[in-house]
Amino acid sequence: MDTTNNSMTDSDYYVCLNDTYINKYMNLIAKRSANKIYVFDSFFFTSLYENGYSRVHNWTKNVDIFKKKALMIPIYTREENRWSLVMIDMANKTMRYYDKFGKYNPRNIRLIIKYLKLEHFMRKGTFFKKNVIRTPTNICSSNIDILDSGLFICVIAEHLSRSALLLFSLNDMKRFHKQIVCDIKCDKISNLIPSFYT
């Protein structure tokens, strides 16, 4: 899909949300939050994992992430072809890991904590201390494997960005997918409202 074109085609509504879609939608979330939320690029974690802190140190040279209300880090696991999302509450210094299967990757969490400590030390001269909270998702279904993981983290991020409860279900996903694609096309984000409220 050409995300710079406002016109929609039928195929747009069925495409999986890859890194291009995720980055554009996450940027809309950050913009709506009046930049209180900092969203890392979808390639950030891969670069951190494969190349180390020295390769990503300059990614935040023009922003103080420690003054943000929250950080969001999309994580792509190539071996499993799956997206996950890490949400860091900077006020409470807690971290939550969202995966469509409700899994938790301690290796990824340790790497992010290490990054935060190094980043804080390099920028401020002291280490960043935090607690980690494991948070499984509320989506449970025998058919969950059909769910596009890119769509999953976009929906999670949108809800978390406005402190909304995660009460959506798989039945909401087709409608959410259409709305997200439309939002990206229009460069304007709208709330994803689960059928629970309608």
UniProtKB/TrEMBL annotation:
Keywords from the named record: Hydrolase, Protease, Thiol protease
Biological processes annotated in GO: protein desumoylation; proteolysis
InterPro entries, sorted: Papain-like_cys_pep_sf, Peptidase_C48_C
Domain Ubiquitin-like protease family profile: residue ranges: 1-160
Domain of life: Eukaryota
SUPFAM superfamilies associated with the record: Cysteine proteinases
Cellular component GO terms held in the UniProt record: nucleus
GO MF annotation list: deSUMOylase activity
Family of this protein: Belongs to the peptidase C48 family.
Identification of the protein by name: Sentrin-specific protease 1
Lineage: Eukaryota, Metazoa, Ecdysozoa, Arthropoda, Hexapoda
